Amino acid sequence: MTVPILPELLTPAEAAAISGAPVKAVYKLARERLPRATVVRKSGKIFLTPVGALCVRLDRELPKDVPAKVRRALYRMVDFHPVGPVEFGAGAFRYVLETAPAARAVAHELAAYRRAMATVVEDPEVQGGTATFRGTRILVHHVADLLSQGVPADELRSDYPNLTDAMLAAAPVYARAHPKRGRPRTPAWRRTAPHAERRITRQGA
Question: What's the rounded Cα separation, in Å, for the pair 60 and 105?
Answer without folding.
Answer: 13
